[in-house]
Write a structure and sequence with these properties.
By secondary structure, the protein is α/β, with parallel strands linked by helices. The chain folds into two domains: about 220 residues, Rossmann fold, CATH 3.40.50.1100; about 100 residues. The protein is about 35% helix and about 15% strand. It is built from 14 helices and 18 strands. It has a six-stranded mixed beta sheet, sandwiched between helices. α7 links the parallel β13 and β14. The mean pLDDT is about 95.
C-alpha cells in the first residue's frame, strides 16, 4: 500500500458560510451564533477514488482524515434484479453495507455505521492522550468498538442496557475498549446523558455525533459508492433514519458531486423513513415545521419499547439546525415515510427471498418505504433509485462463532458527574 498523505480541507459554517481552519477536532464554528452544522470543504474538488486504497479509504480525498486504519471495509453497490422486479423498477441500485461475500461486502460488524467509525477514528492523530467517547443505540457502538479494538484506540461506549444485545463480536475486545450502560428501561438519550457527563473531564473526548464532519463524510461514502457504480447521480435516495445523519451526509456529497460537474447536476430527492410509533421527525416534517414536535422522555421510552427497529429512536436528532435533516429534505424536494413493525417484518422476509441477504430491521424500514413511494407514485419506474440498505448479513457473519460483550459498568445518568467520571477512570487505571 502506498504512503498516505493526510487530506487537505477546511471547515464551513453552514448557516453563515464562514470558512475556517480545523483545530484538530472542531465540532462547531467557534464564532457561530446560531445552531448550525459545520461542513468539510476539500481542496480536491473532483471525485477521485484511489485504487491504491481499499474500502472507504478509496474515497480518502473526501474524508477529513489523518491516516489509514486497518480493515477499512466500505459499502458495495449493485443493480437489483429481484427486488426491482417485485417493485416494477428498471434502475434500482442497492448500496449494501454488511456481510455478504458473494457481492463483495465484507463488513464484519454488518452495519453501515462502520463507515463512520473508520472515518472518525482516522481523523484522530496517531498519538493522543484522550479517550474517545461514543454514545449509541447499538450498531454505532459495535462498529466503533470493533474499529478501536482492531487499531488500539482508547474508547468508552455509552449504550442503553436494553440494547446491549447489539454488542456481538467475532473475538473478544481489547482492554482499550470499555462499555458503560444506562439501566434497564432507559433509552438512547440516557446513554447520551452519560457520555455528556463523562466528557466534562478533559481526558475524555466526545466523538460528536452528527456534528463530527468525519462521521458524516464517512457515511456519505454510500453515495460515492453508488455514483462510482452507476456513473451518475441517482434521482432518488431511500434510507431509514434515527438521527438522519446518513441522509444529511448523502445530501452534502450530492452537492460536492454537482460541483464536480461530471455526474450530472440533479439534486437527488432524499426520502427518509421512521418506524411507527417512534415518528418524531416524520411528524415534524409532515407539519412542515423546522422545530421538532414535543416528546417527553417518558413518551420516548414507551415508543422506543414498541418499535422493532430500536436504532431509529433518537429524540434529539440533528433535524432543526442549519444543515440538518429539515434542510436536506427541503433542498432536495424529499419526503418522509412511516413504517409499522408489520410492514418492516414483511419486507425483511421479502428482501431475503428476493435478494438472498438477511437485513436488519432498520434497513427493512427503508425497503418498506420504497414500496410505499412506488405505490404512491413518488418515483417513476425508469428513474435511477438508490436504496441504502444499512445493515445485514448477520446470520452468515455469526455462523463462524461470536462473543457477546457485557457492560463494564451500569451507571444511572442522573448520578453526579464526579461519581460517573471517577468510576470510569477506575476502568482505565486513571
Amino acid at each position: 500500500m502506498k504512503r498516505f498523505t493526510p487530506t487537505r480541507y477546511r471547515l464551513m459554517n453552514v448557516a453563515t458560510g464562514r470558512i475556517f481552519e480545523d483545530k484538530g477536532w472542531s465540532l462547531t464554528d467557534p464564532l457561530g451564533t446560531a445552531p448550525s452544522l459545520i461542513r468539510a470543504v476539500y481542496d480536491s474538488k473532483q471525485f477521485t477514488p484511489d485504487p491504491d486504497f481499499e474500502g472507504i479509504y478509496r474515497y480518502a480525498s473526501w474524508l477529513p482524515i489523518k491516516r489509514i486504519l486497518k480493515k477499512g471495509q466500505g459499502p458495495v453497490t449493485y443493480k437489483s434484479t429481484g427486488l426491482a422486479r417485485e417493485l416494477g423498477l428498471e434502475n434500482l441500485y442497492i448500496t449494501f453495507t454488511g456481510y455478504a461475500p458473494e457481492i463483495g461486502a465484507e463488513v464484519a460488524t454488518c452495519s453501515f455505521k462502520a463507515t463512520e467509525a473508520y472515518s472518525v477514528c482516522a481523523r484522530l492523530p496517531r498519538k493522543t492522550d484522550k479517550v474517545l467517547v461514543v454514545q449509541s443505540a447499538g450498531n454505532t457502538a459495535r462498529a466503533f468498538a470493533q474499529v478501536c479494538s482492531d487499531n488500539d484506540i482508547p474508547l468508552v461506549i455509552c449504550i442503553p442496557k436494553d440494547n446491549i444485545g447489539a454488542l456481538w463480536f467475532h473475538k473478544r475486545l481489547r482492554p482499550c475498549v470499555k462499555i458503560i450502560s444506562s439501566p434497564r428501561g432507559s433509552d438512547y438519550f440516557d446513554a447520551i446523558a452519560l457520555g455528556d457527563k463523562l466528557c466534562l473531564a478533559d481526558r475524555y473526548m466526545a466523538e460528536g455525533g452528527a456534528k463530527n464532519v468525519a462521521r458524516r463524510d464517512g457515511m456519505g461514502t454510500t453515495l460515492l459508492s453508488a455514483v462510482e457504480a452507476i456513473g451518475e447521480l441517482p434521482d432518488a435516495y431511500f434510507q431509514a433514519v434515527g438521527s438522519g445523519t446518513g441522509a444529511i451526509a448523502v445530501w452534502e456529497n450530492n452537492l460536492r458531486l454537482i460541483a464536480d460537474g461530471r455526474f450530472g447536476n440533479k439534486k437527488t430527492r432524499i426520502y427518509t423513513s421512521q418506524n411507527a410509533p417512534f415518528t418524531l421527525m416524520y411528524d415534524s416534517w409532515k407539519l412542515h415545521q423546522r422545530a421538532l414536535v414535543p416528546m417527553t422522555p417518558e413518551e420516548s421510552r414507551e415508543k422506543c419499547a414498541e418499535i422493532d427497529a430500536k436504532v431509529l429512536s433518537n429524540r434529539k436528532p440533528p433535524y432543526s439546525l442549519a444543515g440538518g435533516l429539515f434542510d436536506a429534505l427541503e433542498d432536495t424536494g424529499g419526503d418522509m415515510f412511516k413504517v409499522t413493525n408489520e410492514e418492516l417484518n414483511l419486507w425483511q422476509r421479502k428482501f431475503l427471498a428476493l435478494e438472498g441477504i438477511d437485513i436488519y430491521s432498520a434497513a427493512a424500514v427503508a425497503v418498506a418505504s420504497l414500496s410505499q413511494a412506488v405505490a404512491q407514485g413518488k418515483v417513476r419506474k425508469d428513474e435511477i433509485i438508490m436504496l441504502n440498505v444499512t445493515g445485514g448479513g448477520e446470520e452468515m457473519a455469526k455462523a463462524g462463532g461470536y462473543f457477546m460483550a457485557t457492560p463494564d459498568l451500569v451507571l444511572d445518568p442522573d448520578q453526579n458527574e464526579d461519581e460517573i467520571i471517577s468510576k470510569v477512570d477506575s476502568l482505565f487505571g486513571f
